[in-house]
Structure formats: structure tokens, C-alpha cells
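Q: C-alpha cells for this one, please.
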Amino acid sequence: MIRMQYSLLLFASLLLLAGVLGCARSARVTSVDPAAASPGMIVQVTTDKSVFQSRQAAHVEIGEQVAVTQNVLSDTSVEVIVPNLAAGEAEVRVIERGKKAERSAVRLRILPARSQQLVLSFQNNSVSLLSASLRGGEAARTAEPDQRRLSYDVFNEQGGFVYSGALVHPAYGRMEIYDETQTGDRVVRGDKPHDHAVFAVKIPNVPGHQLTIKFYDAPAGVDLNTDAGRAERQFLNEITINR
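A: Here is the predicted structure, written as C-alpha cells:
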């Protein structure tokens, strides 16, 4: 009788321990949508447990790199940004605070990035590079010709010309400013941008270990699609990106 009671007590303890361990385990990823994406694209990750009650409760890793949370859809689903990874298969898993991460069978197929985003700074009539990262989507090529523009040419590591683009000049384009009146109304007005500006451009993800980008000041009204128009540009400076 005593042995039977001991066996029942041991069995109940094991069940309780299994339940505690089951609750303590980290959530597992059940799906990622779409199943293939380039760095910089947004994918939806779904788990088998409620873990996303807040952005601090858990985070997603793709290929052992933290994927920035873009949007929390529910307690079990988030949208994240694919980190900068080489093309191939990458494990997708969720990491809960204070819990050991579970290995995941879910994989995301990383596609080659189609473009590279450059965060640039313009100051003292010169452009400098702040950061460069791989991105999905296409590069933006042109800006309206009726405004002064910042034009740029991209060259590969052999010095070959591969791409040209332009944007409204960050020091001369129109900047919108919102003023609030005493009655609480918001009024928008145009103003000249500051001498220092931070902006971003997308260029094609050109193969190779080094890129050179040359920047030019392009007057308003000049057609940058013609040799004559490009000849009217004023060279500012160039930057080199090593990858």
C-alpha cells in the first residue's frame, strides 16, 4: 500500500515537473511569410505561444542575427525586417527573455539583395557616408529636373560606370515646416533647408568588394539624360565603399 502511494506520488511529481518545464520552454516559430526575402524586406513570423505581449518580452532572430520588429500583429505574430545576410537558408527562431531558446525547423530563404541603401550626410558642399546596408526593392534613379539636384555616378571596383541617379539637392530643395498658431491650428510653410542634411539613396547591389560614388551639383533645368546636360554638372567629391 505504501509502495503504491509512493509510486502515485512520484508519478504526480513527474507530471508536475513536465508541466513546469513545458511552460518554461521558449516559444517555437511555426511559420514565416513569405518563405523567401531579401535583406531589408519585411516578413511575418508566427509562434506557437503568446510571447509578443510587448516588444521587450521577446525578439526574433534570423540566421542568428536580431531581426528588428517592425509591427506587433498579435501575441503570437510579428512583422520583422530581414537583417543583412548572405544568400542561402537561415534559421528563424524566437528568443524570450530569461528562457533558453529552442532550435527551429523553420527556415527563411535569403535572396540576393537587389539594392544597397546609403545613408549620407551633406555639409560644407561635400557628401560623406554614414552607413551602408543591403535592401530589397529597386534603386530610385531620377528627380524632377525643375529643381537643383544632387547627381551621383556609381563605379565598380574596375572603375567601370554602372549606374547614375539624382535627387533634389538637400541644401536647396524645399523643406516643409509646420507652425502652430495660438488657436491651435497647424499651418504648413516652405523654408530653405539647413546647410547640414542627412538623407538616404538606393543604388543597385553591384557585385564586387569596392564601389566608388562621385557626387555632382546639377543646376535646375539641365537634362541629366544627355551628355551635354551631364557636362554642366559641378563635381563635389567622391566616396569609396569597401564591402
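A few notes: The first helix runs from residue 2 to 24. The chain has two domains: 26-110, 115-242.
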